[in-house]
């Protein structure tokens, strides 16, 4: 456990020093910008509905970006020799993968929580009363779980590909998995219990029949997918060149 915490701490420090941490947190905070801007508009000019859909779209983009950064980061650790240095000091390869996963899980939480609170605080009173706070919280938590699945996919690619290629593939793969949830014609591909269904629920909470149940199904599927992908990533890391 102490090795996992140490690796996660080193990963967060590396993200901070390289400004990747600021980029990821800023991307998650910018997802709340449309709602904040609408709140600044005169009441007659600001629509009373549809504020959460731009938030869901922004989150999909930010989570795909996080997957790309995760893939690039772990691949750079391999090719740069940092992962090999840790392994020579009795840190198991699987702990390297899990340490980076824990670091990105914390980064997602740091960026997503204030973003979600900001969106809720900027909702008009009439719209906030029409949305179940528990349903909103469940949808945001499920979106965080979807981000964990995207990060796990990025780490898996990072154990196999070179940094730039791994980052680009993870970004495209994350976008392909998450963006259909916020694009009208493709939303049928992201219904519960698909991980991306959390974004569907979040984008249309007023019309969702079972926001909490659908969010729980989506979040559970995301966590299961993240766990399975991490097992594959740990196995692939065992054979990777460091």
Structure description:
α4 (about 50-80) runs antiparallel to α6, α4 (about 50-80) packs parallel to α8 (about 135-160) and α8 (about 135-160) runs antiparallel to α10. This protein starts with a helix and ends with a helix. Residues about 45-50 have low confidence and may be disordered. Helix content is about 75%, strand content about 0%. The protein has about 240 residues and is mostly helical.
Structure characteristics:
242 residues, mainly alpha
Provide a count of the helices.
Answer: 11
Quaternary structure state of the chains depicted? single chain
Computed structural class? mainly alpha
What is the CA-atom radius of gyration, in angstroms?
A: 18 Å
* Largest beta-sheet details: none
Task: Determine the N-to-C terminus distance.
Answer: 23 Å
* Residue fraction in strands: under 5%
Mean pLDDT: 84
Low-confidence stretches: 44-48
The proportion of residues forming helix, as a percent range, comes to over 70%
Please count the beta strands (DSSP E, at least 2 residues each). 0
Overall, the morphology is elongated
The SSE order reads HHHHHHHHHHH
Summarize the structure.
This protein has 242 residues and is mainly α. The protein has helices at 2-17, 20-30, 33-40, 52-80, 82-88, 93-121, 125-130, 133-158, 163-178, 197-203, 211-238. The two termini are 23 Å apart.
């Amino acid at each position: 456990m102490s090795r996992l915490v140490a690796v996660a701490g080193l990963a967060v420090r590396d993200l901070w020093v390289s400004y990747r941490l600021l980029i990821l947190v800023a991307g998650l905070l910018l997802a709340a910008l449309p709602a904040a801007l609408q709140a600044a508009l005169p009441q007659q000019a600001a629509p009373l509905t549809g504020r959460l859909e731009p938030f869901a779209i922004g989150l999909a983009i930010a989570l795909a970006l996080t997957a790309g950064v995760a893939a690039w980061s772990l691949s750079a650790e391999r090719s740069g020799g940092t992962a090999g240095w840790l392994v020579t000091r009795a840190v198991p390869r699987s702990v390297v993968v899990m340490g980076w996963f824990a670091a990105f899980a914390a980064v997602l939480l740091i960026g997503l929580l204030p973003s979600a609170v900001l969106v809720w605080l900027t909702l008009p009173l009439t719209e906030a009363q029409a949305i179940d706070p528990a349903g909103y919280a469940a949808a945001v938590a499920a979106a965080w779980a979807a981000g964990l699945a995207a990060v796990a996919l990025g780490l898996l690619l990072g154990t196999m590909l070179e940094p730039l290629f791994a980052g680009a593939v993870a970004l495209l793969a994350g976008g392909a998995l998450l963006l259909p949830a916020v694009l009208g014609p493709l939303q049928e591909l992201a219904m519960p219990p698909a991980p991306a269904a959390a974004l569907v629920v979040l984008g249309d909470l007023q019309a969702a029949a079972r926001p909490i149940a659908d969010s729980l199904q989506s979040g559970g599927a995301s966590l299961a997918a993240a766990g399975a992908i991490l097992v594959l990533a740990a196995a692939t890391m065992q054979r990777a060149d460091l």
